[in-house]
Amino acid sequence: MNYAYLSSLFRKQTGKSITAYKNELLIEQAIDIFKKSNKNITEVSNKLGFSNPYYFSRVFKRVTGVSPSVYLSQIYRN
C-alpha cells in the first residue's frame, strides 16, 4: 500500500487528512498536559515533537480556534 492510496482511504472513512487527524490528537495531548502540569508552551511543543513553538501555536490555533496563550489564560482565569 502506498501513502496516496492509504491517505485517500483514510479521508473517505474520517473526512480528514492523516495530518489533520494527527494534529488533532497532538493538540488533545497538549491540552491535557496544560491542564495537568505547569509546563509552558515551549516545553509542551518540544514534548510533543513539534519543530518549533511557533508552528505548534499555529497548529493549536487551527485546531482549537484560540492560541495556546489565550487558552492558558482561560484555564487560569477559571
Descriptive account of the structure:
The protein has 78 residues and is mostly helical. The chain has one domain: Arc Repressor Mutant, subunit A. Helices cover 77% and strands 0% of the residues. The chain has helices at 3-14, 18-36, 41-47, 53-64, 68-77. The chain is elongated. 12% of the residues are buried.
At CATH's second level, what is the architecture? Orthogonal Bundle
Compute the number of strand runs. 0
* Overall average residue pLDDT: 94
Classified in CATH, the superfamily is Homeodomain-like
Structural domain count: 1
The fraction of residues in strands falls at under 5%
What's the CATH topology label? Answer: Arc Repressor Mutant, subunit A
Largest sheet: none
Distance between the termini: 48 Å
> Judging from the principal axes of the Cα atoms, what is the shape?
elongated
Oligomer: single chain
List keywords for this structure.
78 residues; mainly alpha; Arc Repressor Mutant, subunit A; 5 helices; elongated
SSE order and pairing:
Elements: H1 3-14, H2 18-36, H3 41-47, H4 53-64, H5 68-77
